[in-house]
Amino acid sequence: METMQDWFGLKGEHKDFAIETDADARLFFARHELHNDLQSMLRRSFRTGTPPKMVLYGDWGVGKTHTMRHVEHVIDTTPEFPARIVFRELPDITSKSTFQVAHSALLDALSFDLAQDWVHSFYREDREFVGKIRTWTQSGDISEAFACVIGRGDTSRAAWDWLRGYALSAAEARSAGLGPPLSQSNDFVKVLRVFGRLCSEVEDTMLVFMLDEATKLEFITNQDAVNHWINAIKLISDQQTKDIGLIVSGSWIDLDNMAQPLQDMQVQSRFGESHYILLPNMDSPQTKEFICSLLHEWIDPGKREDLKSKYDAEADEEPISDSTFPFTEDGLDLAVDYACRRGGYTLPRDIQKTLDDLLNRAIDEDRHILSSRYVSSIVNA
User: Which CATH number is 32-279 given?
Assistant: First the structure.
């Protein structure tokens, strides 16, 4: 069976024209204004020593996760943006789930091993570290739990679970010398802020949490649980909280439809209106740029020249350029119109599906070049 890679001359690492959010994080097609806005916010954050805090939102398929990964890539590859990113998709939640669900998931993404290394390093530099953590948190239980993290065996793991917000057995609690499990939203935030301080002290970098798929927050209907989330996010998003950053993404078209923990005015006022960033759908020119950029990035130049030369007759005498292959220039324009057929706009996810449909059909019908006549025969069938 012919593969799309061979048929259209894709580079060795690509099997189709799908964009992988992780592997292709450096790429950000046809989003120049958004890219500049995000860069400006990041520069302002690191210039002022305030970790980035923002909410990315838009329609399903608009590229929120990819944008999150792109921001992560930009931070990781920019020396002027010293930060450690902890990325996590919000786990499944119920109507009564509190912020503890996100808190434990973020700590899992941070990892016990890294947390233990940080505490060890801080302890080696300052033997009064327990007192310092008690001062930072105003909590003897939290400071003792951090002290137990550098222990060995079951005690350190029990302390870690306690910091994640889980209830210990009576024997585990006695062994670690810990009290009742954490339950208050401000206590969870205190723990996250301690890790932010440790990250700064040990690595001299900011700690930035990224929470993807926050649309799941809509499932929370219990008002006490909603309030728990509101208070936690309010504390983290406050610009005076300089220990940790928070970047959240969710599928909403406008602020009025956003889940209550992010829509609440106490939270909005702390993130700041300009830090709620809408990822808009793509119009026809952006769609064309997106496709051209994708084709240019994915297709091997040498293979493209061979295929253009060998199958030139399939162009139906229409001009074909390096930026449009395997489409002719007119064929690409028609493909763009088809992708934007619903109101003149489309989404990156739908663009990739349109390409997949058209190019797979071309392979089935033994076509290497898609002219406007050929594309028309598909979309008007």
Answer: 3.40.50.300
- Distance between CA 186 and CA 233 in Å, rounded? 10
- The secondary structure of residue 219, as a DSSP letter, is G
- In the chain, the amino acid numbered 103 is H
CB atoms within 10 A of CB 215: 18
Give the per-residue pLDDT at 338: 97
| Reported pTM | 0.95
Backbone angles phi, psi at 87, to 5 degrees: -105, 135
How far is residue 184's CA from residue 232's CA, in Å, rounded to a whole number?
A: 9
Question: Are 203 and 160 contacting, i.e. CB atoms less than 8 angstroms apart?
Answer: no
> Tens digit of pLDDT for each residue in 19-61?
999 999 999 999 999 999 999 999 999 999 999 999 999 999 9
Residue 64 structure tokens: 């929120």
Helices 64-77/32-48 angle, 10° precision? 50
Per-residue model confidence (pLDDT) at position 265 = 97
Low-confidence ranges of the chain (pLDDT < 50): none
Determine the pLDDT at residue 185.
98
Identify the CA nearest to 273 among candidates 54, 88, 119: 54
For 256-358, strand residue ranges (E) read 276-279, 282-283, 345-346
CA gap 162, 140 in Å, rounded: 13
- If 0-12 CB within 10 Å is exposed, 13-18 middle and 19+ buried, where does residue 283 land? middle
| 3-state SS class at 212 | strand
Strand partners, 244: 207
For residue 51, the model assigns a pLDDT of: 96
Closest CA to 290 of 342, 363, 339: 339
How many residues does this entry show for the chain? 381
The whole-number pLDDT of residue 281 equals 96
Instruction: Indicate the domain borders of the chain.
Output: 4-12+282-379, 32-279
Other Cβ atoms less than 10 A from the Cβ of 24: the count is: 20
For residue 141, give both structure tokens: 């239980």
Contact 24, 348 (CB under 8 A): no
Residues 348/63, Cβ–Cβ less than 8 Å: yes
